[in-house]
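Structure first, sequence second, as always.
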């Protein structure tokens, strides 16, 4: 099938590449000329395990193209996916500008029957707006004879395992009000769910709500655990023992119960905010989600306070080694990454930071360019020489079993602030470290 992907970011690029891998002919469009030029010269602009191989293979075999020409891509496709960003506005509302611009561009060049699928995460009612804009453009062009259908298919991939998630999804949600659109989309997605029937069809508003509801629930679990972790510290309990104890209950399950420095990334923070705001506009006060957001905001401060307290509220002149910059392992995405805020705060209080991340340092260098308080090292141990403390912020697997004796030798003071509970406190104490975790007594 012929597919046009409008927006070649984390979602658009992975979706386009994986659809091409299944034999479809995909054109990925972006307004970012530099990004398209890099892709056309073989450079993949994001880090995502397995993605580069799929892109290279499908480009060579002629099933995947990158272009800035929306019209050419739209007119040559049956399916048009909208996978552009929906960043938060100041009041938390999702900024739909890019989605609505894409709809307008589609309406301006539609020339035959197409299925337009919103994949960006959007509030209830947005796909209806997309339909309205395309209809208006067709009226303006006096081409109301042209038929099209709209659908909303939320994307559930996780950065860091996006290819794997897309190839083997837990479920595929198709939001549409037309049987024929549903059938077309089921056909398109069938190779990804061959083993088990995992396609769920529903109305467009329900599908739009399902995406926000899923992210909001995962964020809720994280904030719930973080709040309990803070309580555990004063109650003399260990949140890691509590997590095992409660997670083994099948009704609860083990996923997303990890306490830490709070959630970040390009989705949870903005989606929680957008859901709160869109509910507010309809007269609903989402009390639980407001608390989820509040706890998350506070969690980074709770961690920083722990560091501050260790130094009697004066960290000026201290040197911190920071391990991990991306908002989670296996990605180079630093959007709303807790590490960025933590580093900013440390430096603003007079400390200096030497940081390392396996793939996100390029993006972080841009953020901290010109800031003399932040430097980078090409490997994790290189951050440690003369450091007053090691601060672990992102739980990359390579940080899990380091050589503690070597670390102890390199550091000025043997202090570890473990923002992800990666280490065994007892073991570290045996190695002579002063250890701080999250929610451990
Ligand atoms: N990143 C994730 O893990 C993830 C997961 C699920 C859903 N989502 C949702 O998917 C959407 C996209 O997220 P992302 O992380 O891929 O964003 P992104 O910022 O990485 O990519 C968006 C791309 O769209 C391009 N763009 C904007 N307007 C355009 C236009 N008119 N024509 C062509 N290209 C245009 C931008 O230049 C950019 O390259 C968001 O709504 C997000 O909430 C993201």
């Amino acid at each position: 099938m012929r597919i046009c992907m409008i927006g070649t970011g984390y979602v658009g690029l992975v979706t386009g590449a994986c659809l091409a891998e299944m034999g479809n002919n995909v054109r990925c469009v972006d307004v970012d000329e530099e990004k398209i030029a890099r892709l056309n010269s073989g450079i993949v602009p994001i880090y995502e395990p397995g993605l580069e191989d799929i892109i290279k293979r499908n480009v060579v075999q002629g099933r995947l193209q990158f272009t800035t020409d929306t019209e050419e891509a739209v007119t040559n496709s049956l399916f048009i996916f909208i996978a552009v960003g929906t960043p938060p506005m100041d009041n938390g509302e999702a900024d739909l500008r890019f989605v609505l611009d894409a709809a307008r561009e589609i309406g301006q060049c539609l020339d035959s029957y197409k299925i337009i699928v919103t994949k960006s995460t959007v509030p209830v009612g947005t796909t209806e707006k997309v339909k309205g804009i395309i209809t208006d453009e067709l009226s303006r062009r006096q081409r109301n004879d042209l038929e099209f259908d709209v659908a909303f298919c939320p994307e559930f991939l996780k950065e860091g395992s996006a290819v794997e998630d897309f190839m083997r999804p837990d479920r595929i949600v198709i939001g549409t009000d037309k049987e024929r659109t549903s059938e077309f989309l089921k056909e398109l997605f069938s190779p990804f769910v061959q083993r088990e029937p995992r396609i769920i069809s529903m109305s467009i508003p329900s599908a739009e709500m399902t995406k926000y509801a899923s992210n909001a629930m995962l964020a809720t679990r994280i904030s719930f655990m973080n709040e309990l972790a803070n309580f555990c510290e004063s109650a003399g309990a260990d949140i890691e023992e509590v997590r095992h104890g409660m997670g083994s209950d099948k009704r609860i399950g083990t996923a997303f119960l990890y306490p830490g420095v709070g959630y970040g990334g390009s989705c949870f923070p903005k989606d929680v905010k957008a859901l709160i705001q869109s509910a507010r506009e309809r007269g609903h006060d989402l009390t639980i989600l407001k608390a989820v957001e509040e706890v998350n905001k506070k969690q980074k401060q709770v961690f920083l306070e722990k560091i501050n307290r260790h130094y009697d509220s004066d960290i000026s002149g201290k040197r911190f080694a920071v391990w991990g910059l991306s908002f989670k392992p296996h990605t180079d995405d630093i959007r709303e990454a807790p590490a960025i805020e933590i580093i900013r705060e440390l430096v603003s209080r007079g400390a200096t930071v030497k940081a390392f991340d396996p793939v996100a340092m390029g993006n972080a260098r841009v953020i901290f360019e010109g800031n003399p308080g932040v430097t980078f090292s090409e490997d994790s141990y290189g951050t440690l020489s003369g450091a007053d403390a090691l601060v672990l912020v992102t739980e990359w697997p390579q940080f899990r079993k380091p050589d503690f004796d070597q670390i102890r030798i390199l550091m000025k003071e043997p202090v570890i602030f473990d923002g992800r509970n990666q280490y065994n406190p007892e073991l570290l104490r045996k190695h002579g470290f002063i250890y701080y975790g999250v929610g451990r007594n």
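Margin note: The two ends are 57 Å apart (CA to CA).
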